[in-house]
Amino acid sequence: MFEIILFWMLVFLGSLVLLIKSSDIFTTNGEKIGLFFNMPRFIIGVTIVSVGTSLPELATSIVATLNNTSEFVAATVVGSNISNILLVLGVALIVAKKLNISWEISHVDLPLLMASCFLFSIVVYDGMITLPEAGVLFAGYVIYALYTIKTTYERQPEENTSLLHLRTIILFFSSLLLISLSAKYTIMSIIKISSLLNIGVDIISMTAVAIGTSLPEMMVSIVAALKGKAEIAIGNILGSNIFNTFVVASIPALFSPLIVSEVTINFALPIMIIATIMCFFITQTKEMTEWEGGMLILIYILYLGKLFSVL
């Protein structure tokens, strides 16, 4: 029994690492292809890069829906958003000691984050995400993308060109194949582990998957925070959460209506709302400190303890 559980845990960790790495390769080489076709950087950022950083969540959610474990989707979205704010932002603040945020982010991106959080909460409250509701969520992302295009174009309207090598094309399409395979085995291992340990798929999604798929955001935010680039550190988190609630929650619903578990609705969803509101008020001061980061981490530990009934 133990050997079987250990085997599937190793499969889960290996496939998750491969999923994150292949998503990174996809993003890097997709950007090079975009530059070769003379796409402005703002278009590349809104399409290839923004999608690429959230591909692990999106890929696993689609595979989970096709495998009739659709409760995985909402749990992953909620768990990932909680991890991004409480864990990723918390660690970034502790590492950086202090971050000063610009007015622009707090003026527009934060209200959009709040809107995405509340819209998602309304959609999932009845325990389902239907096709029409998925359309509403995706329309929210279209609005956000148009805003991003508009503001980024105003700041950086220049065009870019680059050489395109055969290696770039091979890596781009190979990474797509690896994303598909690794997402398949990630979901397969989660189903096996949850069955062997008698733990709900949604619980594993809100913890192991959420933390694992938040690692790219964490590394980007930590590096940016250490360099004093608060806009990148915070913007990365805000953009990822908005993408999760609007796109990761909507695309899988195109294949089949999504079930939202009671644990997700009654426990994790309120935590996500609280975390989002905390993020809003913390950034309103335009100066965030390590003490606020420590408080976020403390709340995240309490969240995990309550989720597994150890606190």
For this entry, give a set of tags:
12 helices, two-stranded antiparallel sheet, A middle domain of Talin 1, mainly alpha, 3% strand, 311 residues, two-stranded antiparallel ribbon
Q: What is the gist of this entry?
A:
The protein has 311 residues and is mainly alpha-helical. The protein has one domain (2-307): A middle domain of Talin 1 (Up-down Bundle), CATH 1.20.1420. 80% of the residues lie in helices and 3% in strands.
How do the helices and strands follow one another from N- to C-terminus?
HHHHEHEHHHHHEHEH
CATH superfamily: NCX, central ion-binding region
Uncertain stretches: none
CA-CA gap between termini? 27 Å
CATH C-level class: Mainly Alpha
Q: Can you tell me the CATH topology? A: A middle domain of Talin 1
Number of discrete helical segments: 12
What share of the residues lie within helices?
over 70%
Domain module count: 1
Shape: globular
Major β-sheet profile: 2 strands, antiparallel
Strand order of the largest sheet: 1-4
Describe the structure.
It is a single chain. The chain has about 300 residues and is mostly helical. The protein has one domain (about 1-305): NCX, central ion-binding region (A middle domain of Talin 1). About 80% of the residues lie in helices and about 5% in strands. It contains twelve helices and four strands, in the order ααααβαβαααααβαβα. The chain has helices at about 1-35, 40-55, 55-65, 70-95, 105-125, 130-155, 165-195, 200-215, 215-225, 230-250, 260-285, 290-305, and strands at about 100, 130, 260, 285-290. The strands form two sheets. The chain has a two-stranded antiparallel ribbon with strand order 1-4. A two-stranded antiparallel sheet has the order 2-3. It is globular and about 50 Å long. The relative contact order is 0.22.
